[in-house]
Each structure stands twice: as structure tokens, then as C-alpha cells.
Amino acid sequence: MLSLLKKTEDALASVMLIAHSPGTETLALTLSRKDGTATEEILRERIELKFPTGALACLRFAAEHWRSIEPGTGKLTDFIRPRDLSD
Fold this sequence. Notes:
Radius of gyration: 13 Å
Structural class: alpha+beta
Number of domains: 1
Mean pLDDT: 93
Low-confidence stretches: none
Order of helices and strands: HHHEE
Distance between the termini: 32 Å
Strand order of the largest sheet: 1-2
């Protein structure tokens, strides 16, 4: 999935990857910083605990080109599980 992400056209400001486990949680944990803020660490712990079907991990990168994204360079900004959504 990372190789596909790196092939994204730079004209696109955001991308949504939809995939199946265990690839989604592995990619989210691989790309997110391990020494991030306290909030990022809490989100990482939630992903490590369980990445349920339908969950969404949001990451932000300071890179100018998709091809320059590397493991540990993303800021984990949110992790939303279906049960977190209200009716």
C-alpha cells in the first residue's frame, strides 16, 4: 500500500486508502510517528489494540511529494471506529 501511496500524483492534496486488515493498521502504525504528542500516542495505542472493520485512521504529512513519504513521518490526527459515531 505504501508503494501505491508513493505513486499518487502530487496535484492531489489528500488520499483515502480503503483496504483490508491487517494491512490498514500496519500501514497506519508504520507511517505514524512513534515519538508523537500524547494524543498521537493514545491514538496509536487504540490502533494497536484493535482496528475494527470500518475504522478510519487519519494521518497528515509535511511532505511536498507523495513519493517522499517514509515510515514514521506521518502525524496521526485521528482514529475513528464505527462505535465512536453517534446515531
